[in-house]
Amino acid sequence: MIKLNQYEYKEEYTYYMLQALREGDKEVFRKDFLNLHPTDQTEFFLSLDDNRRLRIYSFLHPTEFSEIFSELNPDMQKKIIVELDRKYAIDMLNELPSDDAADFFGLLTHKEADFFLTRMEKDAFL
């Protein structure tokens, strides 16, 4: 696992991940990104604009993205959940540790929380 703050070629490593993301090279991006320490994954994710974040969602499995999502501050979580495809969001929320999921649902209106919770329960039984 690579920790970027201890890695001699941090800028170069980041450049190649951005290039793979831009070019749609899913395999290269996943290899480099998933090799990063989770803190660095979150920092990299937060540095991206909206369009690049959308690409990340298509490159990462909901389980993988749930680790990043749980590290985001509450305001960012509310922003990100709107960007996600509903099915992807539900799958990702199913993967969150229960305390992180409870914290997230506490940020939402009753109607918003109910939307996700009802569908999460249905997915769990399918």
UniProtKB/TrEMBL annotation:
Pfam name, any one: MgtE_N
GO cellular component, one term: membrane
Chain ranges of the Magnesium transporter MgtE intracellular domain: 36-124
Domain of life the protein comes from: Bacteria
Gene3D superfamilies: MgtE N-terminal domain-like
InterPro entries named among the record's database cross-references: Mg_transptr_MgtE_intracell_dom, MgtE_N_sf, MgtE_transporter
GO MF term list: magnesium ion transmembrane transporter activity
Name the record gives this protein: Magnesium transporter MgtE intracellular domain-containing protein
